[in-house]
Structure of Photosynthetic apparatus regulatory protein RegA:
Amino acid sequence: MAEQPKYEIEEDPSLLLVDDDEPFLRRLAKAMEKRGFAVETADSVAGGKAIATARPPAYAVVDLRLEDGNGLDIVEVLREKRPEARIVVLTGYGAIATAVAAVKIGATDYLSKPADATDVTNALLATGDDLPPPPENPMSADRVRWEHIQRVYELCDRNVSETARRLNMHRRTLQRILAKRSPR
């Protein structure tokens, strides 16, 4: 079982959760409320921006890829409205480039899915040079590779030849990888 966070919530416990995966959003909201946060949720960039503008929270967890756009747009609005907000970008498509972009725009931390409420809480409440403990079940190297290939494939509009060229791999090798199920 994961250890409970050793950090304290500031006097303002407002938390914005933005994710288009409805079951995940509900579970995370319930878990974060149990930890003492006052949770507000949104399932789109538009909804997240509206809440960030009207009631900028002290904390936010924003999914990077949403159906109507990029979660980094919400991070920018939050930084503008409440510069001291602690923001964690959460995504199923972990990549170094997106992590760097998220932190440059103003995210406090970056977590890859699957992340549980303890990982999220530790990332939100860690201060200064204090790093949260590593996740108990990080993605395997094979899974990270697969996620990267999937991301590039999506960015190339699902064009196998273009994806293979950009990844410097043979097209047939890429086709075999894409035909397989994701590694654990």
